[in-house]
Amino acid sequence: MSKKMKFIVPTLVVGTFVLTAGVYGVGITLAQDEEAGHTSLIQKLAARFNVEESEVEGVFAEHHQEMQAERVAEMEEKLSEAVEDGKITAEQRDALVEKKGEMKSKHEGLKDLSPEDRRAQMKEFRGEMKDWAEENDIDMRDIAPKDGKGKRGGKGMGGSGGPHGGPRF
After folding, report:
1. 114-120: long-range pairs with CB below 8 Å, 24+
2. How many CB atoms lie within 10 A of CB 156?
3. I want to staple 46 with a disulfide (CB 3.0 to 4.6 A). Which of 53, 93, 95, 150 is the partner?
């Protein structure tokens, strides 16, 4: 690897990390605007550091996967703590994990919607989750983050927080 590349790659990674924090912090309601901004940001970074856009996209994708894995691990840890504390049963934990997968699949279909339609659909999803939790005798406040993570302004895309401040699934 050339001297120039040894400098550019770490700088690109650090710069991308800092810039993606802003991109990911905007929230799902701005996803279409973000996509255009994301593409523009990728192009600007590639041009600035004289690397292929695919390399920058790869860094973004890798960071996104790492953040997703971290959120999954945090959720699983929180649910396990709730079981240990007697707030939910192991069966309820398993049902929540399954519901999380179901809701994630539904959320993936939102990216092609207009911001207004996306907001309406998210509101419907929150209502669905609230009803599901009540049907399964789960008080989402029992598993809500207590350390500020997962709430608006916290970690994740635009923050998180489902009904009554509980985790968004």
Report:
1. 114/32, 115/29, 115/30, 115/31, 115/32, 115/33, 118/28, 118/29, 118/31, 119/29
2. 20
3. 53
Compute mean pLDDT per 10 residues along the chain, 169 residues long, and list them: 52 45 44 61 92 92 92 90 92 92 87 91 93 91 65 44 45
Copy the structure tokens of residue 24.
């990911």
pLDDT attached to residue 145: 64
Q: Which residue has the tokens 């009904």?
A: 163
pLDDT of 4: 55
Encoded tokens for 13: 């990674």
Distance, in Å, from the CA atom of 35 to the CA atom of 30, rounded to the nearest integer, reads 9
Give residue 151's pLDDT. 46
Distance of CA 118 to the CA centre of its chain: 16
On whether the pTM is more than 0.70, the answer is: no
- Furthest-apart CA atoms within the chain: distance in Å: 61
Q: How far apart are CA 28 and CA 134, in angstroms?
A: 26
C-alpha to C-alpha distance for 154 and 74, rounded to whole angstroms: 14
In angstroms, rounded to a whole number, what is the distance separating the alpha carbons of residues 132 and 82? Answer: 18
Please state, in angstroms and as integers, the Cα–Cα distance from residue 89 to each residue in 68, 72, 84, following that order: 25, 19, 9
